[in-house]
Write a structure and sequence with these properties.
There is one protein chain. The chain starts with 9 loop residues before the first helix and ends with a helix. It folds into two domains: 1-65, no CATH class; 69-181, 3 helical TM bundles of succinate and fumarate reductases. It has helices spanning 10-13, 64-67, 72-103, 105-116, 118-145, 152-181. With 182 residues, it is mainly α. The chain contains six helices and no strands.
Length: 182
């Protein structure tokens, strides 16, 4: 009967993350110390830092994308990151527009034409939504920092309120702008 020896090597202590029995073969350093592993649960093997098992097969993709359905928290988290990027891009456009105002002439006319076009208005509406959603998420995260809103029902409700409230506020702002423009 073979006995397993204790080792302090990090690669031997690292638990196997693969489920393929064909992936495992005894390494040269461990030859004869224990029988070959029949499955991932039978032994801890050397797994390289690049995510390839000793037999050269890549690690499988994480199943979380196929098993779990995204919840409102997933959507708001991803949207929060996208909104941050969009606001950063909008800040660049704002800086360029202010430079165009200062310079005047053809550059200012080009920006005026852009903001007056359908594409420009869609961009402005999108940035309006982004600003409202970012503000709603900031309030939501501030409440979390204070220790409120962590129970599942409240987190779902505040996520939906952030999404719906941002959309409604954006539409109301642009309806007001349209009514003022005449």
């Amino acid at each position: 009967m073979h006995t397993r020896r204790a080792t302090n090597r990090p690669s031997a202590r690292r638990a196997c993350m693969l489920n393929s029995p064909a992936c495992y073969a005894p390494s040269e350093t461990d030859a004869g110390l224990h029988p070959p592993a029949r499955s991932c649960r039978d032994a801890k093997q050397n797994v390289s830092s690049k995510g390839v098992c000793p037999m050269g097969k890549p690690r499988p993709l994480s199943p979380h994308l196929t098993i779990y359905r995204p919840l409102i928290g997933s959507y708001t988290s991803i949207l929060h990151r996208a909104v941050s990027a969009a606001l950063l891009g909008g800040l660049g456009f704002l800086a360029a527009w202010l430079l165009a105002i200062a310079q005047g002439g053809a550059l200012f006319d080009a920006f005026s034409a852009l903001w007056g076009s359908i594409v420009g208005k869609v961009m402005l509406f999108g940035w309006t939504f982004c600003a409202f959603f970012y503000a709603a998420q900031w309030i939501r995260h501030f409440a979390w920092d204070m220790g409120y809103g962590f129970d599942l029902d409240t987190a779902r409700l505040t996520g939906r309120l952030a999404l719906i409230g941002s959309a409604v506020a954006s539409v109301l702002v642009w309806l007001y702008i349209a009514m003022r423009a005449g």
